[in-house]
Amino acid sequence: TQLLEQSPQFLSIQEGENLTVYCNSSSVFSSLQWYRQEPGEGPVLLVTVVTGGEVKKLKRLTFQFGDARKDSSLHITAAQPGDTGLYLCAGARNQFYFGTGTSLTVIP
Amino acid sequence: GAGVSQSPRYKVAKRGQDVALRCDPISGHVSLFWYQQALGQGPEFLTYFQNEAQLDKSGLPSDRFFAERPEGSVSTLKIQRTQQEDSAVYLCASSLALWGDEQFFGPGTRLTVL
């Protein structure tokens, strides 16, 4: 069972555009993580957010954890073709849950 | 090695065959996880080991799935009498210590059941 719903499921944008990916749950998580996965590889951790309301920046990526610790967002500024991949949020409760995934394609 | 390795990378099985998927975690990592991932979707948790102890196997979809980590390092995921619905990528991850630490993933084994 996947407790974490991501939207949109697919996103295709032009290089230079901005985008936001959402990760929502009805459950509270003590922390959420964001991963990026490229074809034929395993997911790679981008960031962990722990505190409700927390904002973390990683170059052109901005991650936010909702105040109630039930949701998170990932915003990418000026997307580049190298950002193409499957973006996954994840969190731990009684087991480790991954989100449904957002497949991003950035067109040069 | 420097990262998590999995073998084989690709496996084709006929329906009804047994398969064994191997995971070599990062040396010294206590925790080991197995996930099943359908194309374009997020991984789904299968099972979790802390050293040699299997602490959670609630995600295993049926009793045809069995995992072990007898010496607390290498792990094997075995699927008996494979079915077409077992076709997926099987990911292994390890983490240094406890539940919730950063997980380092292997490249996965793509299983196709014909």
Protein described:
Chain A is an all-beta fold and about 110 residues long. Chain A has no helices and eleven strands. In chain A, strands 2, 4, 5, 9, 10 and 11 form a six-stranded mixed sheet that branches. A five-stranded antiparallel sheet of chain A has the order 1-3-8-7-6, with no helix packed on it. In chain A, a hairpin with a 2-residue loop joins β6 and β7 (about 60-65). Chain A is globular and about 40 Å long. The N and C termini of chain A lie far apart (about 35 Å). The mean pLDDT of chain A is about 95. In chain B, strands 2, 4, 5, 6, 9, 10 and 11 form a seven-stranded mixed sheet that branches. Chain B has a four-stranded antiparallel sheet with strand order 1-3-8-7, with no helix packed on it. Chain B contains no helices and eleven strands. Helices cover about 0% and strands about 50% of the residues of chain B. The model of chain B has no long low-confidence stretch (mean pLDDT about 95). In chain B, a hairpin with a 2-residue loop joins β5 and β6 (about 55). Chain B has about 110 residues and is an all-beta fold.
Question: What characteristics describe this protein?
Answer:
heterodimer, A: 108 residues, mainly beta, 6-stranded mixed sheet, 5-stranded antiparallel sheet, 11 strands, B: 114 residues, 7-stranded mixed sheet, 4-stranded antiparallel sheet, 0% helix, globular
Distance between the termini of chain A: 36 Å
Helical content band of chain B: under 10%
Proportion of strand residues of chain A? over 45%
Give the % helix of chain A: under 10%
**CA-atom Rg of chain B in angstroms:** 13 Å
Structural class of chain A: mainly beta
Overall mean pLDDT of chain B stands at: 94
The protein's oligomeric status is heterodimer
DSSP summary, beta strand count of chain B: 11
Strand content of chain B: over 45%
Order of helices and strands of chain B: EEEEEEEEEEE
Order of helices and strands of chain A: EEEEEEEEEEE
Radius of gyration of chain A: 13 Å
Query: Biggest sheet of chain A, in brief?
Result: 6 strands, mixed
- What characterizes the major β-sheet of chain B? 7 strands, mixed
Q: Can you tell me the residue ranges of chain A where pLDDT is under 50 for at least 5 consecutive residues?
A: none
Going by helix content, strand content and strand pairing, the class of chain B is: mainly beta
Morphology call of chain B: globular
